[in-house]
Design brief:
about 525 residues; alpha/beta; Rossmann fold; NACHT domain-containing protein
């Protein structure tokens, strides 16, 4: 994204070509979607909803379409992927799409710059209806005809947005107002067939419905066999018969096949690759197939009966990974984890997470945020009946994260954190400000400054946390906190954050005896 329009952008929400379909697979549905994108039929619906159960490969199709259009065809478009950990990402959906399109449509960029200059509040509004109308619908309608080729917008995993309430307005907009865009616009949406999504899209005349269920089981089995063959090529002793068995066992779930190949290919410990394959083929039936796979992988890493110290460390790390409001890289998770357990555990996150590379993204790259590779793993770990001994209880994690964020701020906030030579220059006048911010404001500090009140507001009152808040807000640390938010272009959040903490502390003043005035 190269546009310099000053509105928030959702980093890390874009296309990931490593998630695209293997060449030669899913050709039937991909050809249908490509035909819909390029059709000249004026009556073609402008929204296509592709639904299907978890693990069937919807995201791979979404990334394949985005890669085909924006990289192979060099077409104008945007790809936005929801993630259940990024709880406010729905507020950045339409601004991010607008910025992506503005980077390729000069007239839109000019229009948005004029708009934000005349109405600065639009740059930070959380009102998705206003975002859609002002940042997309109206400016694109005004320049209709300026872009002749199709414009493709891919919205992946809408079901992972922050609950039915947060996505209700997005659904309404896509179902009702997408048709108000120029007729060459196409919006591909993927999700599980959740009731709230199904009810809106199924009754919308401007939405084309496609489901993974309509794909031929034989075609899906063939594609999974091709995928398994590609993944295990070169693994000694494996051949076509094994790939056929893997495809048959997968029950149409590409995510199961991916995990199975990872489990076999990177065998460590007592079992050989062949023994791991046989274990998968004879896994107990009657459970959700992905749950069975998660159990097999976790038992291979932690053991059938892990020691209390091992499972407690596993849970203490995973509850942080699963509960941060934005995914964080390894070093930052280590800092928050150590602060949450009130003791230094420099390698705890690495020791726990590194063996889970087949289940979590970002584990092998120190700068990448770590998150579950598939939403079902998050659901598995946090549902006691499904994960059993590996259950991760996140019910009270906000208390620990509140402590951790406040501790991080107390330790790391300081005067002139980016070591700027002059306070008289505007941020926009500092040539290397971006590099300074990256080097001086680590992700754990940026996260803590942005989200500490979100963790505080949902926990019971506690004197220790109230005292830590006083330690930030009643001295110069408050100015340092605001400076960080200003450098991150988030200073507009300060009033609402102070309002949250004021309400919390007004009650705590009475309940826990902490005297504090805002």
């Amino acid at each position: 994204m190269s546009s310099d329009v000053r509105i928030p952008y959702a980093e890390g929400a874009g296309i990931d070509t490593t998630k695209a379909c293997l060449e030669g697979t899913r050709t039937e549905i991909l050809d249908e979607i490509k035909g819909w994108v390029t059709t000249t039929d004026a009556n073609a619906p402008q929204v296509l909803w592709l639904s299907g159960p978890a693990g069937t490969g919807k995201s791979a199709i979404a990334h394949s379409v985005a890669r085909w259009w924006m990289e192979e065809k060099r077409g104008i478009g945007s790809c936005f992927c929801f993630n259940r950990q990024a709880t406010t990402r729905h507020e950045r959906l339409f601004p991010t799409i607008a910025l992506d399109l503005a980077a390729r449509i000069p007239a839109l960029k000019v229009s948005l710059n004029k708009l934000i200059t005349s109405q600065p509040a639009l740059a930070t509004t959380a009102d998705v209806t206003q975002q859609w109308r002002k940042l997309l619908q109206e400016p694109l309608t005004n320049i209709a005809g300026g872009v002749a080729e199709p414009v493709v917008i891919v919205i992946d995993a809408l079901d992972e947005s922050d609950g039915p309430l947060s996505r209700s307005h997005i659904l309404s907009i896509l179902a009702r107002d997408a048709a108000k865009l120029p007729s060459n616009f196409r919006i591909l949406v993927t999700s599980r067939p959740l009731l709230d999504i199904d009810e809106v899209f199924r009754n919308a005349s401007g939405v084309r419905l496609e489901t993974m269920d309509k794909l031929s089981p034989l075609s899906t089995k063939h594609d999974i066999q091709l995928y398994s063959s590609w993944r295990l090529t070169g693994v000694e002793g494996f051949g076509d018969q094994d790939f056929t068995q893997l495809a048959g066992k997968s029950d149409g779930l590409f995510e199961w096949a991916r995990l199975a190949c990872e489990y076999i290919q990177y065998a460590q410990g007592v079992l050989t690759k062949r023994e791991r394959f046989e274990e998968l083929m004879h896994a107990e039936e009657g459970k959700e197939l992905l749950d069975t796979m998660y159990m097999i992988i976790l038992r291979s890493i932690l053991g059938d009966r892990p020691r209390n110290s091992t499972i407690n460390r596993f849970r203490s790390v995973l509850r942080i990974v699963l509960s941060t409001l934005e995914p964080l890289p390894m070093d930052s998770l280590n800092v928050l984890h150590s602060s949450s357990v009130r003791q230094s555990q420099d390698r705890a996150c690495y020791d726990v997470l590194h063996p889970l590379a087949s289940l979590l993204s970002g584990v092998s790259n120190q700068s990448m945020p770590i998150r579950p590779l598939h939403s079902t793993f998050h659901e598995f770990l946090t549902t006691r009946d499904r994960s059993g001994p590996f259950f991760v209880d996140v019910e009270d994690v906000n208390r620990d994260l509140a402590h951790a964020c406040l501790q991080v701020m107390q330790q790391h906030l300081c005067f002139n954190i980016c070591k700027l030579e002059s306070s008289y220059l505007r941020n926009s006048e500092i040539a290397d400000l971006g590099e300074r911010i990256k080097g001086c404001i680590k992700p754990y500090l940026a996260y803590s400054c942005q989200f500490w009140t979100e963790h505080v507001k949902v926990i019971p009152l506690e004197a220790g946390i109230a005292e830590k808040i006083k330690g930030i807000l009643l001295n110069e640390k408050m100015l340092f906190w605001m400076e960080v938010l200003a450098l991150l272009k988030l200073v507009h959040m300060v009033p609402s954050m102070l309002s949250i903490v004021a309400s919390w502390l007004q009650v705590s003043k009475v309940t826990v005896g902490v005297k504090f005035e805002v």
